[in-house]
């Protein structure tokens, strides 16, 4: 691990210390590492849709909206290769929250998110992505071969 030194004015340090306290960080270094990771990942995602990612798509929707459930189901089935799992929560008599775990190419995941978030009746849609490297592994067991992949965060 490499050590670096930074200089900050008193007001910025004060705000940073309050941030650390609110988030329950044990030390400044871990907070700075998280901020750097977030910045590098956001920059990487803003520059290109190439590559792979994991993440979540969370949205609130009115299940009473005409044909919305059918349209959402269609979007999930049309993008079945990136929609890994869905958590569905009933908020009240009309509104539901769904969180979808996504995994795939950044371009395809963003297409799926846009297909869901832009539906009339969907509100508060938010896509959170983490760029990953995908490593393919091939295994042979008892004469049969199979492959699977591992994903590793890039930062």
TrEMBL record:
User: What is a biological process (GO) this protein takes part in?
Assistant: response to nickel cation
Q: List positions binding Ni(2+).
A: 77, 88, 90, 96
Transcription factor NikR nickel binding C-terminal domain ranges (all copies)? 54-130
Does the record bear DNA-binding in its keywords?
A: yes
Renumbered to this chain, region (Disordered) spans 136-155
According to its UniProt entry, the function of this protein is described as:
Transcriptional regulator.
Query: Could you tell me what the cofactor note in this record states?
Result: Binds 1 nickel ion per subunit.
Give the family per the record: Belongs to the transcriptional regulatory CopG/NikR family.
In which residue ranges is the amino acid composition biased (Basic residues)?
139-155
Please identify the protein, giving its name as recorded.
Putative nickel-responsive regulator
Obligatory cofactor(s)? Ni(2+)
Q: Name one GO molecular function term.
A: DNA binding
Return any one Pfam family short name.
Answer: RHH_1
**SUPFAM superfamilies linked to this entry:** ACT-like, Ribbon-helix-helix
């Amino acid at each position: 691990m490499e050590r670096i030194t930074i200089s900050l004015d008193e007001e910025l340090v004060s705000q940073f210390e309050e941030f650390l306290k609110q988030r329950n960080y044990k030390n400044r270094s871990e907070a700075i590492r998280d901020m750097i990771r977030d910045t590098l990942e956001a920059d990487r995602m803003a520059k290109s849709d190439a590559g792979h990612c994991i993440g979540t798509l969370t949205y609130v929707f009115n299940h009473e909206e005409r044909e919305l459930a059918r349209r959402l189901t269609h979007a999930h089935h049309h993008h079945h290769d990136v929609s890994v799992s869905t958590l569905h929560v009933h908020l009240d008599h009309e509104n539901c929250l769904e969180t979808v775990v996504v995994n795939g190419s950044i371009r395809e995941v963003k297409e799926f998110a846009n297909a869901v978030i832009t539906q009339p009746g969907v509100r508060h849609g938010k896509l959170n992505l983490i760029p990953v490297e995908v490593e393919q592994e091939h295994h042979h067991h008892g004469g049969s071969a199979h492959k699977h992949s591992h994903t590793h965060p890039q930062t």
